[in-house]
Amino acid sequence: MGGKQPDESAPVAVRKDTGARRVLRAFRPEGTRVQAGPVEVGGTGFVVMAGPCAVEGVEQVDRTAAAVAHAGAHVLRGGVFKPRTSPYAFQGMGEPGLHLLAEAGRRHGLPIISEVMETSQLPFMVESADILQVGARNMQNFSLLRALGKVRRPVLLKRGLSATLQEWLLAAEYILEGGNEQVMLCERGIRTFETEIRNTLDLAAVAWAKQRTHLPVIVDPSHATGQVDLILPMSLAAAAAGADGLLIEVHPRPEQALCDGNQALTPEHFQTLMQRLPPVLDAVGRHLWRPESPAQVVRAR
Ligand code: PEP
Ligand code: MN
């Protein structure tokens, strides 16, 4: 036994190749389908997630759920933990709000998506939410991303306010590396020198992410523009650019909204948007998502 023994005190070798790998298209060329309750994201069906920025109360969330379900939305959104710029702004209803959202989703047959801000919220969020949203401000919260790698719930990962495409992909890589491959990317506008529009919607990033990765890509035209009159044209543009779905803020009374009222569509405006999508989707070989088999209808809640 003349061989040299390994030196146990030596530092563990650091991998030289630190780039994204599991998120890359080559890792799964056929593309990933994300299963959110009964709804599948990433196939030919285009998925619309809609609802209030924040859950504010039982009547508000129920009216919104009824309206977006009636218009043909597939998933109900609603924040109960709100990452607000000011500590004096409405911070969300917390866990009780999550139960109102889940109840409204059940009543109107829609799975729900809600934002998780910290690891301590995961146990009850996993119980009630069909999709866990990671907000733009948390895209590089690495301990949260690692924890999300360990749960069995789909994750929608928003692009950070000033995140490069590589940073966005590597954030997703944390979740996949942890063992959760049910990840969707969400382009929600980035911060640029422009001040007239809330953010700059990077639609090239959508086409880029579809080509480079196997993950579904969702566009949030509400936070990307911050203006109701820009949401319809940007939704149609996102569909044409190859997005797999939309995340849109809707409020029954936008002028009374506790959060992001300026960008909230009324139910009527949202219905118009839903009616304008099909011809654009048709032009790119897509259609609004619908259950494909009776089995999926039975599983819908
Ligand atoms: C939201 O979806 O309500 C939200 C806070 O979005 P973002 O993280 O993109 O700002
Ligand atoms: Mn919002």
UniProtKB/TrEMBL annotation:
<dbReference type="GO" id="GO:0003849">
    <property type="term" value="F:3-deoxy-7-phosphoheptulonate synthase activity"/>
</dbReference>
<dbReference type="InterPro" id="IPR006218">
    <property type="entry name" value="DAHP1/KDSA"/>
</dbReference>
<dbReference type="InterPro" id="IPR052899">
    <property type="entry name" value="Class-I_DAHP_synthase"/>
</dbReference>
<feature type="domain" description="DAHP synthetase I/KDSA">
    <location>
        <begin position="43"/>
        <end position="273"/>
    </location>
</feature>
<dbReference type="Pfam" id="PF00793">
    <property type="entry name" value="DAHP_synth_1"/>
</dbReference>
<dbReference type="InterPro" id="IPR006268">
    <property type="entry name" value="DAHP_syn_2"/>
</dbReference>
<protein>
    <submittedName>
        <fullName>3-deoxy-7-phosphoheptulonate synthase</fullName>
        <ecNumber>2.5.1.54</ecNumber>
    </submittedName>
</protein>
<dbReference type="InterPro" id="IPR013785">
    <property type="entry name" value="Aldolase_TIM"/>
</dbReference>
<keyword id="KW-0808">Transferase</keyword>
